[in-house]
Amino acid sequence: MSEIQFITSERGRSLIVYKLFKYYFERTLIVTGEKKWRCCIKKCPAYIKILEPSNLITSSNENHNHESCSEQMIQHQQLSTSVKRKATDNPHDKPSKVLIQCLNN
Q1: Domain range spanning residue 44?
Q2: What are the E-state strand segments in the chain?
Q3: Nearest Cα to Cα of residue 6 among 23, 26, 31
Q4: Cα 76 from Cα 71, distance rounded (Å)
Q5: Do 77 and 57 sit in the same domain of this protein?
Q6: 61 and 77 housed in the same domain
């Protein structure tokens, strides 16, 4: 997985997955218009800067001080977030029905 993939965190924030590392949005650089995304691990110095809408990586520091996430962990987070969103949107549905809908999508 070397392309940029956008996912949603459990708290509803946008995240980027790039090379099995998760990044959160930090800020937009005024001069260049680039968006800076930092690694989700608190003390990790890694970041990437991208230009939208092409999602072209303009610069990066990919020196992580931790291991990458597994593909299963990322898929688990996507499924968990999807289930939580559908459950809050349809509070009267049975949990098993919500889970089956999310697994089929």
Answers
A1: 1-66
A2: 5-8, 14-18, 21-28, 35-39, 47-51, 56-61
A3: 23
A4: 9
A5: no
A6: no
Pick from 67, 6, 56: nearest CA to 32: 56
pLDDT tens sequence across 46-94: 999 998 888 888 888 889 998 888 888 888 777 887 777 777 777 777 7
Q: In angstroms, rounded to a whole number, what is the distance separating the alpha carbons of residues 66 and 72? A: 17
Residue with tokens 């970041």: 47
How many domains does the chain divide into?
2
| 52 and 79 housed in the same domain | no
The DSSP symbol for 32 reads T
